[in-house]
Amino acid sequence: MSNEFLVESHLSNKQLNNQSVSLVIPRITRDKIHNSIYYKANLDNSSLRGLNMLQLIEVIVRDLGTLKDKSVNQVCFLGGVEFKCILMKLIEICPTWEQLMTIIQMQDNVIDNFDNKYLVALVLTYIRIQYYYDNDEVNSKKYRELFSKCISDYRKLKSVAMDTDCWSMSQSIEIKIIHLDELVDWLCSEDEIWGIPLGHCQWSDLNASDEDDESSDESLSSSDDESE
């Protein structure tokens, strides 16, 4: 049978921007993710015992969480197969903003020396990939405020080179040390990360919020001068 008539079985039934949330990840990457051993063993619906954030957070903390100065069962680095699998499952579940903030704020809620830097990187990558199209003023402000805060975060992370796809046969895979602010800058300025398209995004210009604030301050100031 021709491939054009085959129905993909792994598309999430949740929708954003009038399409399945899964479609922000290219078909060939989705297929590789769903066929990977890590996804089948840890993130398949039967493995998670339910398609919800409560189950997924356990996997995220187990495999992306770190203790300061040492690892806690950490199997992932940014852009690797396991990271992409977790990112795909996050996309399929489509968590609420409150649930995403719970992941980011987990540092204070787990154990004293828990480091959430990989969890923050996951959420930032997810938001940039999934909500690139969102030009709602309130939502755009939330995204920019979060990214602006994280661009001042200089914690170190292990990562596949951000211009490299870990499944590429033509590129040598190199693991680098990057800083969280470098990830934020890349997400805000580039069109692709780890072989995943980022989509044209209007809210990712972090300077726009500063310019808007300055222009509003100037207009307020001029209004005050005129009233005097």
Rg calc: 19 Å
Please give the number of β-strands.
9
Largest sheet: 3 strands, antiparallel
As for the number of domains, it is: 1
The overall pLDDT average reads: 84
Alpha-carbon distance between the termini? 78 Å
Could you give the order of the helices and strands? EEHHHHEEHHEHHEEHEEH
Order of strands across the main sheet: 4-3-5
Question: What's the helix count?
Answer: 10
Helix content: 40-55%
- Strand content is 5-15%
Bulk shape: globular
Q: Stretches where pLDDT falls below 50 for ≥5 residues? A: 213-217, 219-224
Structural class: mainly alpha
Write up what this structure looks like.
Belongs to the PRP38 family. Pfam families: PRP38. This protein is mostly helical. Helix 4 packs antiparallel against helix 5 (about 80-95), helix 5 packs across helix 7 and helix 7 (about 115-130) packs parallel to helix 9 (about 180-190). The chain has helices spanning about 25-35, 35-40, 45-50, 55-65, 80-95, 95-105, 115-130, 135-150, 180-190, 205-225; strands at about 15, 20, 65, 70, 115, 155-160, 175-180, 190-195, 195. The radius of gyration is 19 Å and the shape is globular. The strands form four sheets. Strands 4-3-5 form a three-stranded antiparallel sheet. A hairpin with a 2-residue loop joins strand 1 and strand 2. The chain starts with 14 loop residues before the first strand and ends with a helix. The chain has one domain (about 15-195). Residues about 215 and about 220-225 have low confidence and may be disordered.
